[in-house]
What we know:
The protein folds into 2 domains: 139 residues, no CATH class; 247 residues, no CATH class. Helices cover 66% and strands 1% of the residues. It contains 20 helices and 2 strands. Strand 1 and strand 2 form a beta hairpin. The longest helix has 31 residues. The protein starts with a helix and ends in a 23-residue tail after the last helix. The C terminus is likely disordered.
Amino acid sequence: xxxxxxxxxxxxxxxxxxxxxxxxxxxxxxxxxxxxxxxxxxxxxxxxxxxxxxxxxxxxxxxxxxxxxxxxxxxxxxxxxxxxxxxxxxxxxxxxxxxxxxxxxxxxxxxxxxxxxxxxxxxxxxxxxxxxxxxxxxxxxxxxxxxxxxxxxxxxxxxxxxxxxxxxxxxxxxxxxxxxxxxxxxxxxxxxxxxxxxxxxxxxxxxxxxxxxxxxxxxxxxxxxxxxxxxxxxxxxxxxxxxxxxxxxxxxxxxxxxxxxxxxxxxxxxxxxxxxxxxxxxxxxxxxxxxxxxxxxxxxxxxxxxxxxxxxxxxxxxxxxxxxxxxxxxxxxxxxxxxxxxxxxxxxxxxxxxxxxxxxxxxxxxxxxxxxxxxxxxxxxxxxxxxxxxxxxxxxxxxxxxxxxxxxxxxxxxxxxxxxxxxxxxxxxxxxxxxxxxxxxxxxxxxxxxxxxxxxxxxxxxxxxxxxxxxxxxxxxxxxxxxxxx
Length: 486
């Protein structure tokens, strides 16, 4: 009896769900099954993108889209192979995640000596960040202004460079800082900025899921500020509703406010379509992409990701050849000429693990998933209670995007995480750091002691005046350990 598409999808769903259930048990044992845990959000993303879509297709008894793809890509055996690779990726990620220690102090060297006060230079930088973010949001995402900037194959094409086009992400940083503040006025400002971002950003047909991330950021900040395990249900419900509405809308725009109410009314009848359509159905794309990687074009051996790491931050308007490794790779690989396959792959993603597979097959999946598990565990350290507010804000921003990473590509995740980190880096550079001053004083004291004789030391000790106790240097306008304007 031949193996059918229905059979392989049943095997895939069963294997992935069982693996994730085992992972859930271990997360609960380690007290990592909570809202601010990177492992929790990775689990949610994997369930959403690699388990739920095929399960719903089976329940609806509609596997036609998988049938079409598997006819182009080696048949059911291709699907069984990808199931094995998926389990390898999940196990590798969570094994490393669960066996990685969180650094103390959180943030490592970046956190040592970082004072909880916000200096005047930091306030100036924060105002610049808000201004640049709002300008990018209105100019390139609102639809109010005509611009020809688009992203093609990961490259910004048109009148703006990549920084101008994605600088709206800068707004995540002030929103996080304000929401973590002990001051109700700053928190109100954070909510206002978040609502502006969601409202204006929803007018753009692209980057839909960032509106959901902003709402999740609100919930994460509330959990950290209140030292709770689980959030207020209001922002979570808002994130779900916004996500469903934007998924049903697709890559179009709202022509009138009535469109929003129309889509809301369609949610009960179109709910399954959201999870089996192109928004979340990455598995069928991975079937076809893995066939292209194995049989037609070949792997990229990490050169694409390496190129983005080395020169992706350079402005393309000045450095025209910054994607030299990617261009060289394409010149060495055979061109994909199958029109049907090209049409099926156009605009679709093969999931985060799928992009790892394109780098080097199952071995790359095991390696890169483990690396990502290590980095995810370090994210947990950023949001610990003793972490400085600057690093804590970056931690909840990254975690708010983590669910979405599993439905994207590796270089896309790198670009998003790098962009939101830029304002944090700027704020850290101008921050006041007590550790550096204390270290210099200790070095000078030690050097002086080495130069002085024993009688000299006794005379110095006898004439030394008492020192004020530490912790009395906090002036007016200081920012508490929980945010701006504490």
